[in-house]
Amino acid sequence: MSNFKNDLVNILEMLQNIEIDLNLVGYTETEKKIYYTIALRLSKSGSCNITNVIETSGYSRSTVYKTIKKFELDDLIKLKQSNDDKREFNLSLSVT
Questions:
Q1: Domain made up of 27-93: CATH architecture
Q2: Residue 80 in contact with residue 68, Cβ under 8 Å?
Q3: H or E element: which one contains 93?
Q4: Which of 78, 81, 84, 91 is the residue whose CA sits 20 to 30 A from 64?
């Protein structure tokens, strides 16, 4: 097998292990993309709100809200009402 194929297989195995570690295995690809959008935004800017996720992911408001609610119920993320805008919620990861 070529180096490229070996590298690709290794990367895919690492991604699978990360998804297992984060308890994302049972989620759809859309839900995983929303989770990764939150994680990347938090990593880059230190903050993330629901509007950021909608704008960045390209998914509808209802899809994002439904997925975030599911993550909250499964204790993958936490929501906190924004001090600046009471209509907005800030997100954080519940990494254990």
A1: Orthogonal Bundle (1.10)
A2: no
A3: strand 89-93
A4: 84
- Return the number of other C-beta atoms located less than 10 Å from residue 82's C-beta: 15
Q: What is the DSSP string of 52-76?
A: HHHHHH---HHHHHHHHHHHHHTTS
Cα 16 to its chain centre, rounded Å, is: 15
Query: How far from the centroid of its chain's Cα atoms is residue 1's Cα?
Result: 33
Amino acid at 78: K
45, 37 contact by CB (below 8 A): no
Give the pLDDT confidence of 16-56 residue by residue, as tens digits: 998 898 889 999 999 999 999 999 999 999 999 999 999 99
| pTM (predicted TM-score) | 0.85
- Report the interhelical angle of 29-45 vs 61-73 (nearest 10°): 80
CB of 36 closer than 8 Å to CB of 23: no
